[in-house]
């Protein structure tokens, strides 16, 4: 695993862990709940990726410092955030970063293992969305991927293809990974800001 | 993998994908949601089967045409079904076909890998019911396997044993697979038609 | 696998299966539902453990007598418990035993495979809590691990570390396993009895 991939993985883990801890605190969970949700959000997508692609040992078992970091974050977060609840809308940015990082890393691993672009893009979307979907399900929210809301999974899918094309054109992993993940994170933030949707309901659910 | 198995797998995937897309549309999901639910319903059971039996690569990674087919179906379905919502009761037939196909294919793979009839029947039931259970959970329905409703999982279990006995008696895979899956699909349709249950509640929940 | 580990595994399976069947009956499920919930509760945690640690074949596939035992228990339980519903509070003891056994067995397998104490304790907590979390989710209860309630996952975590220290000090697996699991089961029962919590809400949810 290259240094770039490792660095991105750490960024994605921190971002998704923060998003999970914010939701857990907004539900007034105790420190163990905050750690658990942070852990599952940060590591769920990558674990699914490694299980489906038979890539053992699962990455956080090989990199012990990653769960230790999440544990430290949960302790700090629980005490720092004791007084007030954080508004849940604050999760949009960390969630967009985590979505970008893990979509691209999932797709990159799949390419490395010799899968086709189409299969790699599906595995990218799964890796990027599964942690957040577990977070929302466990906290009794509808996962973003199923909300009739601003586009989410389709950005992850498009970003994977942008990564493939860059990689095929430039043959430079660092550039391609960066372009792909910036695309996902920025477009997701714009989609939330300008309320971009695939479909508008005339009938409200 | 024999041609018969491949053909049946495609039938099961199409049937389960249709059942997932009908439920997703009845919840008014956008095209990405329709694809996601169709994909998870069609491929969830088989993925669980391959993970538990350590049968890598997972089948739809090896057979790229299967997720591509589901994608094409989702696009057609989303636009064709734009105007009206489909009644959810329409899913009974595709769900029964998917249940039959995947139960038998799960049991067949387990036999091939040398497991006993009992273990193979459990793996058959898991493979047959897991995709539909994910579909119903993600769409906020109670999964069939937990409804106090017409028999479901027990038909899948019985069908697996009928398949084993046929296979042991005739030594002809095509015949045995067909008998087993027809049993499950037909009995399930009859159970819904004539309201066959294991237990009737005097006290309504 | 040593005899002690096998014996403990059977105790944990029986305890968790009973806890699952009690909840399933209290929801008035039919015999198939009772078996399914009992099966998932008893074998869910260990299956997750074996998948994440790539420990194949999954244990209940290797030990066919375990699912057969659960099937027999479900048949007996469904008919014996036909008349009255069991109060759900009865699950605290079997759940505490299952939590203790599977936490320690998950941690023990991880140590055996050469993982660090920290990783092994995480895998222990996952193995101990996942079956019960599936049971509660499938039966529409909030899983213990997310309830703002008496301590649960933290006891499992502490018990794993007590097991490591015993094992490192005494080099006697039977003693260490017993001390670790007794700690978890007894402390969990005391926590419920004396209402020990990590955090008290001033604001009720």
Relevant terms:
homotrimer; 205 residues; mainly alpha; 0% strand; globular; Glycine transporter domain-containing protein (chains A, B, C); transmembrane helix (chains A, B, C); Gly_transporter (chains A, B, C); cell membrane (chains A, B, C)
Radius of gyration of chain A in whole Å, from Cα? Answer: 17 Å
Order of helices and strands of chain A: HHHHHHHH
Which two protein chains have the largest interface (Cβ within 8 Å of the partner's Cβ), and how many residues from each? A-B, 23 and 19 residues
The separation of the N and C termini of chain A measures 46 Å
What can you see in these coordinates?
The structure is a homotrimer of 205-residue chains. By secondary structure, the first copy, chain A, is an all-alpha fold. The first copy, chain A, has one domain. Helix content of chain A is 72%, strand content 0%. Chain A is built from 8 helices and no strands. In chain A, helix 6 packs antiparallel against helix 7. The longest helix of chain A is centred in the first third of the chain and has 24 residues. Chain A is globular and about 50 Å long. Chain A starts with a helix and ends in a 12-residue tail after the last helix. Chains in contact: A-B, A-C, B-C. The interface between A and B is medium-sized, with 23 and 19 residues.
